[in-house]
Specification:
CATH superfamily: Uncharacterised protein PF10387, DUF2442
Structural class: alpha+beta
Number of domains: 1
Number of helices: 4
Shape: elongated
CATH topology: NE0471 N-terminal domain-like
Strand content: 25-35%
Number of strands: 6
Distance between the termini: 63 Å
Radius of gyration: 15 Å
Helix content: 25-40%
Length: 105
């Protein structure tokens, strides 16, 4: 029996976002393309919020502080989208809308 072993040695070294994709460059030369729809907070974020990312854990993950989003490279390699519940995302969207409405006053 064979098993698929995903090495956690691959680390992110660069991140790019398009209107439809999250693209992560790895330090081993691979590039991962995943649908932006896998990560609703990124999908709903502004271009400015999406552009403000940080590598965490020496590239084991990516953090977007303005969107409170964290993505593990290992999850991308395994094809695992966001595990956030619909209820949690709904609350996040509502809080975000309230914050924007206060700023417009």
């Amino acid at each position: 029996m064979t098993t698929l072993e995903v090495g956690t040695r691959a680390r992110a070294r660069g991140v790019h976002l398009t209107d439809d994709e999250l693209i992560v460059e790895l330090d081993d030369g691979r590039t991962i393309h995943v649908p932006l729809a896998w990560f609703p907070r990124l999908q709903y974020g502004t271009p400015e919020e999406r552009a403000k990312w940080q590598l965490i854990g020496d590239g084991e993950g990516i953090h977007w502080p303005d969107l409170d989003e964290d993505i593990e490279v290992e999850h991308l390699l395994l094809g695992i989208p966001s595990q956030e519940s619909r209820e949690s995302f709904r609350r996040w969207l509502e809080t975000r809308r309230r914050g924007r409405n206060k700023g417009e006053s």
